[in-house]
Specification:
It is a single chain. Helices cover 46% and strands 12% of the residues. Strands 1-9-2-3-8-7-6 form a seven-stranded mixed beta sheet. It has a two-stranded antiparallel sheet with strand order 4-5. α11 crosses α12. It is of the alpha/beta class. The protein has two domains: 181 residues, no CATH class; 92 residues, no CATH class. The chain is elongated and about 140 Å long. It is built from 14 helices and nine strands. It starts with a helix and ends with a helix.
Length: 383
């Protein structure tokens, strides 16, 4: 091997080695992160992760869109999660709920800002020594100097609670010192009150503080009812409205402009797609080729592929069809005899022989084929 080749090979190997070393020292392979948007089921049900977690732990989950006193009395479950705006409050319904809790029921009540004008709800909370206040800007009295605590569960920022001193209750505060969740024991049951439970939502439940609080309230064995057959949860909650494409268009844009643009687009599309009938203005019609030229072209094509017999077969078949329809002649021999009669005496013997060969399908030379077609054409004209 030449010395120049060895030097070139060594230089190339050294360069590749340096590139590999640089790649190993300064670069690393990172897995590609692909953002997968939540499914429609997850967008409609913001408690989907909680539902699957409970069901995976062997705790049945049942959901209702609204409830009244009859729904509570007929429910087999002894643990109920209920949004305050989805319950038909009345004095009788409030008294029934109180008795239901005292008899061993566990009610998780979610307060909503849209139902603060419901006197029955407020009186129901006062019965348990609970008062609720609104105001997102409010902070706890001992919040001065505090910093955000990542170990604090996620609560509703717009609602805070207060409990009377002589109430047998357990309270949970956020990092500002405001009471966000209250659990009161009454008889053999409990009432848990909070604002919108952000710590239960799918987007927050995976955080350790939220998961611990959710487990204590919903899955801990100490909170399970005595009846094993009624150990599931009944959720009385609404679904989140998912807005589609057309809803977003109508909300963001002007419907009149959209319909007008659509009409103009349809008119232009039909105008461009629909064909014009008749001749184009200013264009002259091109005359077609004479019939004789067309037959000659067809004949040349058939002759090139040795298929001139197609003409003979077509003439003979048409002559037989006309003889059968007009004169009732049937059979090969009878049709040939009648064709010879129609050809007539003035014709020479050669024409009669070509006619017989045409009917019997005997091959002819190329020079005789044109004359045979002429004879067949004459017979067909006389039928």
């Amino acid at each position: 091997m030449k010395r120049s080749y060895l030097i070139g090979f060594a230089v190339t190997a050294a360069a590749l080695g340096l590139l590999a070393l640089a790649a190993w020292r300064f670069f690393k392979i990172e897995p590609a992160v692909k953002h997968v948007p939540p499914t429609r089921e997850a967008r409609i049900n913001e408690y989907l992760a909680l539902d699957r977690w409970l069901e995976g732990s062997g705790i049945p989950v049942r959901t209702e869109k609204s409830a009244d006193m009859k729904t509570i009395s007929q429910a087999a479950e002894r643990r109920i999660f209920m949004q305050s705006s989805l319950f038909r409050w009345s004095d009788e319904a409030a008294e029934h709920l109180i008795q239901w809790i005292e008899d061993g029921g566990s009610l998780f009540l979610v307060l909503e800002l849209s139902r603060w004008d419901d006197e029955e709800l407020l009186l129901f909370l006062e019965t348990f020594g609970i008062t609720a206040e609104t105001g997102a800007a409010k902070t706890g009295a001992d919040s001065q100097g505090r910093h955000y605590d990542s170990q604090s569960p996620s609560f509703d920022r717009g609602i805070s609670l207060d409990v009377q001193e002589d109430t047998d209750a357990v309270t949970v505060k956020d990092w500002t010192g405001l009471t966000k969740l209250v659990q009161v024991t009454r008889g053999r049951g409990t009432l848990t009150v909070t604002g919108r439970p952000r710590f239960l939502l799918t987007s927050y439940l995976d955080e350790p503080p939220n998961a611990r609080l959710a487990w204590v309230l919903f899955a801990a064995p100490d909170n399970a009812p005595e009846e094993t057959e009624a150990s599931g949860w009944l959720f009385i909650r609404g679904a989140t409205k998912v807005q589609g494409l057309f809803g977003a268009l109508f909300r963001q844009g002007n419907l009149t402009v959209l319909l007008a643009a659509l009409a103009v687009l349809l008119i232009i599309s039909f105008w461009a797609i629909l064909p014009l009938f008749g001749l184009v203005k200013g264009g002259a019609a091109k005359p077609g080729k004479p019939l004789r030229e067309r037959f000659l072209a067809e004949g040349r094509f058939l002759k090139h592929y040795r298929a001139l017999e197609t003409y003979r077969l077509a003439y003979v078949a048409e002559i037989k069809r006309r003889l059968a329809r007009k004169e009732g002649v049937s059979g090969e021999d009878d049709a040939l005899e009648r064709a010879l009669e129609l050809l007539g005496k003035p014709e020479d013997v050669r024409s009669s022989a070509l006619l017989e060969r045409a009917f019997r399908g005997e091959p002819v030379k190329n020079q005789e084929f044109t004359e045979m077609v002429r004879v067949l054409k004459k017979v067909m004209e006389r039928v």
